[in-house]
Write a structure and sequence with these properties.
Length: 106
Amino acid sequence: MEFEKFNEIRELLCMKYADVTEGKMMSSEAIHYKNKVFAFFSRKKKMVFKLGKGYPIETAHVPLTEFSPFKTKKPLAGWYEVDFEYHDQWETLTQLALDLIQNELA
């Protein structure tokens, strides 16, 4: 169920934007913009978004957790994960991550 929601969002964005493609991030299914990952589906069955180091997480409408895939290293700076419980916000957050990377690469 979780992956199906992720895949639905990915397919929608791939159809809508020519520069958005399917890809991988650390062996996980991902969404790329011009070959740069901006969102992916983690092994913990959560969706992970690149929102940037300065993103004000307190303004989000869902709990954002720093994404930390390594036991002995710091979390990945600017990457945040969201539980399936809040899947109704995954599409909005994916669009936000896409908007941010589009601006970054403009």
